[in-house]
Design goal:
This protein has 655 residues and is α+β, with helices and mostly antiparallel strands. It is 60% helix and 10% strand.
């Protein structure tokens, strides 16, 4: 207790007197806990709940990925913020070392402060999460991603787990900085400049190398689909590829973020090549500040990188998979028109009858449903019997509505108590044409179906196709079909009240594809909270960075600089930080888009892809512009307020 006990009053005094130095860490952790706590409450409440429309995204899976994305962003921001807060106190720590504090005492002091701040922030974040979760639940219901009546049941479990995880992250982030703080030399108390030494530690380098390896391994697994993975419909079904591609994207982002200390200095030099040619010292000062204080530059650039990188990768993957689905769906569609509801998930009552009554019209309707425990009656395996799989119930002639490649059997035999499945599903379970499959229908009714065809299903259909007659009366929710495929003898467009009609050649483009709308809702649910948190983190870290530089401003003013020059330097540094983060984001977006194209060519457009590598420039530009504006405002406003103090007062300001 001896030596550490002497530092307790110092720790208390530090937290009281330098509250502004800890407010950034407090805000980052509070919002991080609130975000993950809200997601955790939603996940725990969603157990056993699903949408009545099986074609909509799985609610449980959607919320799990939302919680994972939120956790990923908050872990990066919280760890970076706490490490940055400790690094900003280098001179103060050197003063403590000068008056006799040992390295162990410094480490204990830093960790103690981190524990106190994180405990207080976790309590506030948990309470805030209780208020945020119901708002997000209502948003999900309004967008059709959650069933009517979905609400949040408060529970201590998610709150406690979230708080514990975030406290651990904060303490680990502070611990790494505390080890560096314990090595600060007392003589550094005499220095005014912040010059970072080795920023890329061995541990960070090992993690940075590991993530690209995992990224490559996961990409290869989804390309080759080993037998062990094929038994899981959530992994095998190509319609779930956009969600799994998100996992690959996150690993790529983590790898680039961990390599940032090595990538930032050369990028700063590259982006500031014209600076030495320009007149004045402001540009040179901004350049050297970014180069010498690498840790500060990396910490302030991380939230900006996450905003632009996540936007580019997630939006880019969503667009690519949407284009691939449209191309594939149109390629196999034989019907002339697709009829869909103008509102809601199903066609209006009576619309199907109107379409079938049209002279010379051939109409096929589809309705999504669920099957549980689909397996062969002769199979002794339990691998397929425990899962729930989506199925498409078809009322009409499937063989003339779609041109589906058939590996075995005939799609024309799909009537009565029969079923057709994808070739991949049949191969993974050892099924053959003629096998009898058992399953439970959506309402739990057992059914026995004869396998009549092995086909290659497009993303617009499920891996399991069965006649509507086999599930009639056993559907969950509205029994009306979700879409109709119509061909007319004269080629005239059909009409039915409450529907919209799209020619087959244009179907699947833009807002014409309900699946695309579902993908965008899922993307917003997964990405939106994390992006909002990262945007707030930009303001938080830039404000922290500016607030810790009072001595820099004082030195510049005492050597003849004026307010305009100081503000110009701060603004240029913010622009340079944003530009560096955007370049890193472009690198990771290009890599993830290339990986997405590989998956598309391998798993969806097997005959060859007309898609080429492209980036979602409007989304990237909007994210970069938003981040830049926030970075400028959150750095220039605090700097302008600080400059109202006299230069001599700056010089005496304590760090």
């Amino acid at each position: 207790m001896g030596e550490f006990g002497l530092l307790i009053p110092v720790a208390v005094a530090t937290l009281r007197k330098r509250w502004s130095g800890f407010i950034g860490s407090f805000v980052a952790l509070t919002l991080g806990v609130a975000l993950i706590a809200a997601a955790g409450l939603l996940v725990s409440t969603s157990a056993g709940l699903e949408n009545d429309d099986p074609s909509a995204p799985s609610l449980k899976k959607l919320l799990v990925f939302m919680a994972g994305m939120s956790g990923f962003v908050s872990v990066f921001v919280v760890a970076s913020t706490f490490a940055f807060a400790v690094a900003g106190r280098r001179r103060e720590i050197a003063l403590l070392r000068a008056v006799g504090a040992t390295s162990r005492q410094i480490r204990s002091l830093v960790l103690g402060e981190a524990v106190v701040v994180s405990l207080a922030a976790s309590v506030c974040g948990a309470l805030l999460g209780l208020g945020v979760a119901p708002l997000f639940a209502r948003w999900l219901v309004a967008r059709g991603a959650a069933p009517e009546g979905f609400s949040v049941a408060p529970g201590a479990g998610p709150l406690v787990i979230t708080a514990a995880v975030e406290i651990a992250v904060a303490v680990l982030g502070a611990a790494a900085a505390a080890r560096r703080a314990g090595r600060v030399r007392p003589v550094e108390a005499l220095g005014d400049a912040v010059v970072d030494g080795r920023v890329m530690t061995l541990g960070r380098l090992l993690w940075a190398i590991g993530y690209p390896a995992v990224f490559t391994a996961v990409l290869l697994l989804f390309m080759t689909m080993p037998t062990a993975m094929q038994h899981d419909p959530q992994v095998r079904d190509p319609r779930n590829l956009p969600v799994w591609a998100l996992l690959i994207d996150v690993m790529a982002i983590m790898a680039v973020a961990l390599f940032a200390p090595l990538l930032v200095p050369p990028l700063v030099r590259l982006l500031t090549l014209p600076v030495p040619l320009a007149s004045g010292a402001v540009g040179l000062l901004a350049r050297q500040n970014a180069l010498k204080a690498v840790r500060r530059t990396v910490s302030t650039a991380t939230p900006m990188f996450l905003v632009v990188g996540l936007t580019g990768t997630v939006v880019g993957s969503t667009l690519t998979f949407g284009d691939a689905r449209s191309i594939q769906s149109r390629a196999v569609l034989s019907a002339q028109y697709v009829v869909e509801p103008t509102s809601g998930a199903t066609l209006p009552a009576g619309a199907t009858g109107q379409l079938r009554a049209l002279p010379g019209a051939r109409t096929t309707t589809v309705r999504s449903t669920l099957l549980t425990g689909l397996d062969s009656v002769n199979s002794g395996s339990s691998e397929a019997t425990s899962g729930t799989i989506a199925a498409t119930a078809i009322d009409g002639d499937a063989a003339t509505t779609w041109r589906l490649p058939t590996d075995s059997g005939s799609l024309g035999r799909l009537s009565g108590s029969t079923v057709a499945v994808s070739e991949a599903l049949a191969r993974s379970n050892g099924w053959r044409v003629g096998d009898r499959l058992t399953a439970s229908l959506a309402d739990g009714t057992p059914a026995t179906l004869t396998l009549v065809a092995l086909v290659r299903t497009p993303l617009s259909l499920s891996e399991v196709l069965l006649p509507y007659a086999a599930v009639a009366g056993h559907l969950r929710g509205d029994p009306q079909p979700t879409a109709a495929y119509v061909s007319t003898r004269q080629g005239t467009a059909p009409e039915a009240a409450g529907t919209k009609v799209t020619p087959a050649a244009a179907w699947g483009s833009g807002d014409n594809d309900p699946r695309a709308r579902s993908d965008w809702v899922a993307m917003l649910a997964i990405l939106g909270p994390a992006l909002l948190y990262a945007l707030i983190a930009i303001v938080n870290t830039m404000t922290m960075s500016t607030g810790d530089r009072l001595r820099d401003f004082a030195t510049l003013r005492l050597t003849g600089g004026n307010d305009r020059q100081v503000l110009s330097m701060v603004g240029l540094e913010a622009v340079l930080t944003a530009a560096t983060a955007t370049v890193l984001a472009l690198l990771v977006t290009t890599g993830t888009q290339a990986a997405t194209l590989v998956l598309v060519n391998r798993r969806i457009l097997e005959a060859g892809s007309p898609l080429s590598l492209g980036l979602p420039w409007p989304a990237i530009g909007a994210a970069a512009a938003t981040g830049l504006v926030l970075a400028l405002v959150s750095s220039l406003v605090p700097a302008r307020l600080a400059l109202r103090t006299r230069a001599l007062a700056f010089a005496g300001a304590r760090q």
